[in-house]
Amino acid sequence: MSIARSPFTTACDIFCRGVNFFRADDLQFLQALQRGEHQSQGVRNRTLQLHPPGWKPSRIGRTLRRFRVLKLIKLVAGTRKYYPTRRAAKVSSSRNCT
């Protein structure tokens, strides 16, 4: 969980800002990912455009990439859908307890 909070550089030299759930935008995005319809069908940029109010598609795409680099979501091969990982469930459950 500490990796998700702190910025780091991946093996491909991609710098990624960590996730801070005390920031309103990170919390809104996590809540949008946790919606029930995304658990069964997966999430795409297009389906997320309705839920975080005022977010542009480019911002959603950057946030999806950041969550993917942090291994909070995984990409389904051959599609543009993402599913939350066990790590995301662990982070979100610890966030709900505090």
Protein architecture, described:
The chain has 6 helices and 4 strands; from the N terminus they run αββααααββα. The mean pLDDT is 77. The strands form 2 sheets. A two-stranded antiparallel sheet has the order 1-2. The protein has a single domain, classed as Arc Repressor Mutant, subunit A. 50% of the residues lie in helices and 10% in strands.
Note the main attributes of this structure:
single chain; 98 residues; mainly alpha; Arc Repressor Mutant, subunit A; two-stranded antiparallel ribbon; two-stranded antiparallel sheet; 50% helix
Sequence of secondary-structure elements = HEEHHHHEEH
Per DSSP, the total helix count is 6
Portion of residues in beta strands equals 5-15%
- What name does the CATH topology carry? Arc Repressor Mutant, subunit A
Assign an overall shape: globular
The number of strands is 4
What is the CATH domain class?
Mainly Alpha
Q: Give the biggest beta sheet.
A: 2 strands, antiparallel
How many domains is the backbone divided into? Answer: 1
Strand line-up of the largest beta sheet: 1-2
Estimated radius of gyration: 13 Å
- What structural class do helix, strand and pairing data support? mainly alpha
Average pLDDT rating? 77
Q: Tell me the CATH architecture.
A: Orthogonal Bundle
> Could you tell me how far the N terminus lies from the C terminus, measured between alpha carbons in angstroms?
14 Å
Helix content: 40-55%
